[in-house]
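A quick aside before the break. I want you to see a complete sequence-to-structure record at least once, exactly as it would be stored in a machine-readable document. Don't worry about memorizing anything.
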Amino acid sequence: RAKETKAMIEALQKGDEVIAAGGVIGRITRISDAYIGLEIAPNTEINVQKAAIQVLLPKGTIKSIQ
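That is the input. The structure line, written in tokens, reads:
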């Protein structure tokens, strides 16, 4: 399972929709070596560690939740 999680984190791209630790849902706006910019609401962005990303969601999931 750890290998799957590591592969998923390495494959993340700008625009992907993810769930981070604590259940925070957002869209990736930027990626650096250790951190990811996550847009959690319009014009609201937070920085999270890459390791905090737990699930990669299908495209359009955030829109269907709202």
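Two observations worth writing down. DSSP finds two helices and five strands in the chain. The mean pLDDT is 92. We'll return to this after the break.
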